[in-house]
Amino acid sequence: MTASNEGSRLIDEMKAQSGQDPADCYQCAKCSAACPVTAAMDLLPHQVIRYLQMGLEEELSNSKTPWICASCFTCAARCPRDLDLARMMEGVRLTVLRKREGNKFGPADLTPEQLEKLPQQALVSGFRKYNK
Amino acid sequence: MPRTGVFLCHCGSNIAGTVNIDQTIEASRNFPGVVHVDEYRYLCSEMGQDIIKKAIEDNNLDRVVVGTCSPRMHENTFRKAAAEAGLNPYLLEVANIREHCSWVHKDMEEGTPKAIALLRAAAAKVALNEALEAPKLEVEKRALVIGGGIAGIQAALDIAEAGYPVDIVEREPSIGGRMAQLEKTFPTLDCSACILTPKMVEAAQHPNINLITYAEVEEVNGFVGQFDVKIKQKARYVDPVKCTGCGICWEKCPAKAPSEFEMGLAKRKSIYVPFAQAVPMVPVIDKETCLYFRKGRCQICEKECPPQAIDYEQQDEIIERRYGAIVVATGFDQMDPSIYGEYGYGQHPDILTGLEFERLFNASGPTGGKVVRLSDGKPPKKVVFIQCVGSRDKARGMNYCSKICCMFTAKQAILLKEKLPDAKSYVFYIDVRTAGKGYEEFQRRAAEEYDVAYLRGQVGKIFPEGDHLVVHGVDSLSGKVVDIKADMVVLSAASIARADAPELGRKIGINTDSYNFFNEAHPKLKPVETHTAGIFIAGACQTPKDIPDTVAQASAAAVKAVGLLSKEMLQGEACTAEVDEAECSGCLHCVAVCPYTAIDAKEIEERYGDGTLKRTVAEVNPALCQGCGSCSAICRSGSINQKGFSNEQILAEVDAICLQR
Ligand SMILES: Cc1cc2nc3c(=O)[nH]c(=O)nc-3n(C[C@H](O)[C@H](O)[C@H](O)COP(=O)(O)OP(=O)(O)OC[C@H]3O[C@@H](n4cnc5c(N)ncnc54)[C@H](O)[C@@H]3O)c2cc1C
Ligand code: SF4
Ligand code: SF4
């Protein structure tokens, strides 16, 4: 395990995606105490942030926790530093997906008919995940 | 034509390094009115001042310009020197050629012409200066202390010992404050009442201290040395002179109400003293719950009182008194943690705040000193303490650290183990902060000798299960989720400012920070002063603090107050604003902008044709005016001028810089 807090791509992208800065977290672990699905997680929510703070990209990409997260926002409601951990989890998921899945399809791959008929939300969500 | 002398200081190389002194001297000789020019390495030194004094006498100078450092540094030094040579000190001007010139420029090419321009401006201004007299203000040799907690008591005792009379205005029926509610005190575990009660009694008996309890400050007018204060003495409905404090009335009184002192955990009577060691030992009748006041029947206390001290006709009274200095010591409150839904405070009798738990240890407290669950009266086996409830929480609470909770939690966990050796304490914390003499050692003793389990993490929810309260939290160090089947939960609720602090601040003219604590004048160098001269702060009303810090600050505030009271006279501000009544149109914009409420409207009568005409003009109270200049800046007709900084003087400076390049 190597830790670095400089220039991690995962963190930069996660920050951009979520608008949250892991440096704001003081590791009180309130989020983990509040989270209803920790039983199934391999890293507790506050540990996800700690890993982000330390730049542990590899470990985070391999963790189950971001995928277990139910996006219930309990952590965000309880965090005393006003961090939205649920958004950060989503940021991690997006970043990991983009990295792992590569460039699957973009607007150019769809026919005008598809573009017109498919729901906007699904399109935006699809592009965010599968288009770099 | 004035006879002006110009004196240049080298300030070692501070000025001379960037300003060509010879060139500047030559240029200064040509300023209008200048008859003498001199220079010295350090003008502020004794030698330097002597040069100025001698030149004033030898050359009959009636105006002086010194080209030196900022007037904030040495204006007073030079004005005093001028006065010693017989010149009115306000006929001296400082041209700041250090901070405003030599320090901000790198080479002589830039520094020298700028220094010359600044000196020329000062010489132009000083020609228009007038001799001014700083008003002398009397000092009322009496202090007011607002709040009778340990801070107020200590400050009052120190002021009284220095020989000055002090009034303590306390809102509650007794002095003592929060310290009276405590059982023992960290880090030495001495009993709070044992060290506080003697001080309360000393204050009550001190010939220089006058206790005004069950009273509040209504209004403060005036200024340093002469604060005119209106105090509302609430009706006690008991004559304090006749009352012997025998206690028969509160024993017999049939009406009950929740006790404020016991945080609502016990009842008191409608006629009551807040606690057994109250000072003064004179009860008050709480009108809201008294049967006689509510329904017109009862009067048992009146019938039973041996010295017939009960007086239902008593009215609120206003006391008006003048004070030279004021110490504000109104203390703090605990935050109501019920906004934290996950902790369930207020929904279960065994979930308490730190202050409520503290009362359970006290022999005269709600449980008679037995630490038991309020739900079933059984002693607890497991107690969970949760830190930072509302502290360090910028989302739902206060962004600051309350400073005292780590220590009082360690104290309560130790006291618990001493009372109930079978009981086990758990403390959920974010960081343990125990800076202070003997503090770290004390907290470590809790962990090492009293078997207190410290868990680094927070609690997500608390829910009742059978007889227990399940505390679901996380230990972040092991990364494990923990569930503790607790019997009681104690929340370290944040220490917060008193709800009425901003209102009180407005009444007395001091400001509060974003958390409603009173602001000190400087965070390091003026910790007990406020921005209003003559008003000082002490204790937890400034920021949360423990007793040692509170007492230290109270003594510091007392010294400041005594320093002020010991002065025969105060020098007021000479450069006050002045209204030209002939030109003033009475728009009163100045009244609105004056931060010191020094301007009022005044009616004047003027001859007009054959009759007279009444009109409104502005009037400045020179005792209140601090010479900030806001009024003269806003005045549309230019009819308010600040002495020493008149519009003419400032324009002369501007002209001297702009027109004579
Ligand atoms: C649970 C708990 C345990 C603690 N244990 C310890 C300990 O073991 N050791 C230790 O060093 N510290 C301890 N402290 C801290 C201690 O209580 C404070 O340091 C201390 O009480 C501060 O004193 P004070 O006089 O500034 O304020 P307070 O004690 O709050 O006194 C202020 C007084 O001003 C009065 N007042 C308020 N507003 C007005 C008004 N508008 N007009 C007139 N009067 C007014 C109040 O009625 C009160 O009497 C503890 C605190 C808590 C909450
Ligand atoms: S609750 Fe907030 S501050 Fe505490 S560990 Fe979680 S993210 Fe960090
Ligand atoms: S009011 Fe009367 S009965 Fe009550 S304490 Fe005072 S003297 Fe005693």
Describe the model.
The complex is a heterodimer of chains A (132) and B (661). With 132 residues, chain A is mainly alpha-helical. Chain A contains 9 helices and no strands. Chain A has one domain: Fumarate Reductase Iron-sulfur Protein, Chain B, domain 2 (Orthogonal Bundle). Chain A is elongated. Chain B folds into 5 domains: 123 residues, Rossmann fold; 177 residues, 3-Layer(bba) Sandwich (FAD/NAD(P)-binding domain); 78 residues, no CATH class; 161 residues, FAD/NAD(P)-binding domain, CATH 3.50.50.60; 67 residues, Alpha-Beta Plaits. In chain B, a hairpin with a 2-residue loop joins strand 24 and strand 25. Chain B starts with a strand and ends with a helix. Chains A and B meet through helix 2 of A and strand 24 and strand 25 of B. One iron/sulfur cluster (SF4) binds next to helix 2 and helix 3 of chain A.
> Span from first to last CA of chain A?
28 Å
**What's the shape of chain A?**
elongated
CATH level-4 homologous superfamily of the largest domain in chain B: FAD/NAD(P)-binding domain
Number of strands of chain B: 34
List the helices and strands of chain A in order.
HHHHHHHHH
How many β strands of chain A by DSSP?
A: 0
The quaternary organization reads as: heterodimer
The portion of residues assigned to helices of chain A is 55-70%
Taking the sheet with the most strands of chain A, its summary is: none
Tally of separate helices of chain B: 18
- Class by SSE composition of chain A: mainly alpha
Q: What amount of the residues of chain A lies in strands?
A: under 5%
CATH architecture of the largest domain in chain B: 3-Layer(bba) Sandwich
CATH architecture of chain A: Orthogonal Bundle
Helix percent band of chain B: 25-40%
Spans of chain B with pLDDT under 50 lasting ≥5 residues?
Answer: none
Largest interface: A-B, 21 and 22 residues
The CATH class of chain A turns out to be Mainly Alpha
Total individual domains of chain B: 5
Strand order of the largest sheet of chain B: 10-7-6-18-29
Distance between the termini of chain B: 22 Å
